[in-house]
Amino acid sequence: MLGNEPDAADACQESFAAMPGLAKLDRFYPWFYRILRNRCLNMLGRRRTRNAYAAETAMSPLPQAEIQDPSDHAMARESREHVWHLLSQLKPKHAEILTLKYIHGFRYDEISETLNIPRGTVMSRLYEARSALRQLHQNNAHRS
Fold first, then answer.
1. Among 66-70, 133-137, 140-144, where is mean pLDDT lowest?
2. For the domain that residue 44 is a member of, what is the CATH number?
């Protein structure tokens, strides 16, 4: 969500520091994710006000499969950077839901529970997010 490992580690550490005793929690991950999500959104807001977000996320790699050919590696890196750049231009709720679905591989029910929203909202938000991403991609393609 933040686009780079050091900021993600900071957000995780701050979120763990804010936790009550674990014995009180029935379902740890959805609860912790909401805390972590709010920390990440706050960090994104601060980053955007400094106009640094787009530059930082463009340098942040996605997990990759093994690539043998150096030209394939370069193309994959360009593609990852392009995806992160597009995600950084989306509304945070759209970038978040696309990241959960396509980068983390969550199912609709998992996204619903994690974000504490109905399954129908997950589906409509994914539709809106895909449309917004497609529009950004087309706009960038026409500029090139």
1. 66-70
2. 1.10.10.10
